[in-house]
Amino acid sequence: SQQGEEDPQALSIQEGENATMNCSYKTSINNLQWYRQNSGRGLVHLILIRSNEREKHSGRLRVTLDTSKKSSSLLITASRAADTASYFCATDQGGKLIFGQGTELSVKP
Amino acid sequence: GAVVSQHPSWVICKSGTSVKIECRSLDFQATTMFWYRQFPKQSLMLMATSNEGSKATYEQGVEKDKFLINHASLTLSTLTVTSAHPEDSSFYICSAGGHSGNTIYFGEGSWLTVV
Question: In what order do the strands lie in the sheet with A55-58?
Answer without folding.
Answer: A5-7, A19-24, A71-76, A61-66, A55-58
